[in-house]
Write a structure and sequence with these properties.
single chain; 7-stranded mixed β-sheet; 11 helices; globular; binds pyridoxal-5'-phosphate
Length: 374
């Protein structure tokens, strides 16, 4: 059994993907070919944003967004303590300071109360200016934007939605990549919408911000590419990847429905015995991960070992909080607020195989193995 079966997806979409790639190869416009533009339009329409600007990967998407915000030294940027490293890394790359905020123990997403406490603490210390917040749509569930955006407004913070794992999720019909001032997306192969290499995108409804993002992504270009008006990056989505993504985007709604069906099947089999993913009212999840919570680190070890013995792969997302990463050991943004939930999750979470092409048999086999190991 595969943790995420990318080969099966390719086998199903092979005729269309091979044809799309062949068209690009024959066309010869390997950078900024016409399908990059058409893909950006299709993606903006899907998520309900005015602008989509593609780039080289999801980490660059975050960096470009922060650069467009004007983030830099002396800025405090609030990030969840329980996420993938890039969410904090981008802050450090632009010279600002990540402030680590606790997460909700049920949704695993940034806790608005902890955010409030962290903002107050930064203000009290008086060394950094509270500047922006980066809520993450962890494991495919949208963050609590209702409360986070309200606090952001109150404290004049910019909001950057890290939707790397959220693509396809919604809250009251509003799609991931449409929250906050800018949203960022990753097309890393294992993400909900993955390409066959690295890729990413940023989204905004603001025309000026969109123009700035486009300039930043291509060497700070002005009127044309040999007119450089600012220091930027070389961060573009390859034409081949855009062509592949166009095929995958067409298949995505069906795949999303299959993924959600697989999640429902897991939940039905497991919810009496273990803590299964929470879906607050109004939310749909893209289930980038199906993550259960065990009672202890020891029980998690036991379950993971039993699954492994049955040929079932599992992963721990994430074994370490951000502020416990070696790179952030002495960071001033650590220990601003207590993060007990983030620490507990690192010991208790376990992600099970999850993808659109899991069979009911697979799901039953995994669930049986989990239940037997408890
Ligand atoms: C994957 C991921 C990123 C980074 O995306 P890359 O394309 O790998 O650079 C950023 N944030 C989160 C939450 C992610 O899961």
């Amino acid at each position: 059994m595969e943790f995420r079966d990318l080969k099966k997806q390719y086998a199903i979409l092979k005729p269309q993907i091979d044809a799309a790639v062949a068209t690009v190869l024959a066309d010869g416009n390997y950078i900024s070919g016409s399908c990059v533009q058409s893909f950006e339009k299709e993606l903006a329409t899907y998520v309900g944003r005015k602008h989509c600007i593609s780039c080289a990967n999801g980490t660059d998407a975050l960096v470009l967004a922060l650069k467009a915000f004007g983030a830099g030294p002396n800025h405090a940027i609030f990030v969840p303590d329980f996420t993938f490293f890039a969410t904090a890394e981008c802050v450090s790359i632009v010279g600002a300071t990540p402030i680590f905020v606790d997460v909700d123990k049920d949704t695993f997403n940034m806790c608005p109360k902890s955010l409030e406490a962290a903002i107050e603490e930064v203000k009290k210390q008086g060394k950094l200016l509270p500047f922006a917040v980066i809520p993450v749509d962890l494991f495919g569930l949208l963050a609590n934007y209702t409360e986070i955006c309200q606090k952001a407004k109150q404290h004049k913070l910019l909001v950057l939605e890290d939707a790397a794992q959220g693509f396809g999720a919604s809250f009251n019909g509003k799609m991931a990549c449409s929250f906050g001032n800018i949203s960022s997306l990753s097309f890393f192969p294992a993400k909900p919408l993955g390409c066959y290499g690295d890729g990413g995108a940023v989204f905004t409804d603001d025309d000026d911000v969109a123009a700035l993002l486009r300039s930043l992504a291509v060497h700070g270009k002005g009127q044309d590419k040999y007119d450089n008006v600012r220091i930027g990056y070389n961060s573009r989505l390859d034409t081949i990847q855009a062509a592949i993504l166009q095929v995958k985007l067409l298949a995505f709604p069906k795949e999303l429905a299959l993924t959600q069906k697989a999640a429902d099947a897991y939940t039905a089999l497991l919810q009496k015995s273990v803590c299964t993913p929470t879906l607050p009212p109004g939310h749909t999840s893209s289930f980038a991960q199906y993550t259960i919570k065990l009672n202890s680190e020891k029980q998690r070890e036991q379950v993971a070992a039993a699954l492994k013995a049955n040929g079932i792969p599992t992963n721990i997302y994430y074994p370490r909080t951000m502020q416990n990463q070696t790179a952030y050991k002495n960071s001033p943004g650590g220990k601003m607020v207590p993060c007990p939930n983030a620490n507990a999750l690192c010991q208790n979470v376990l992600s099970l195989p999850m993808h659109p092409y899991l069979t009911l048999e697979d799901i039953e086999k995994v669930s049986q193995a989990v239940l037997c190991a408890l």
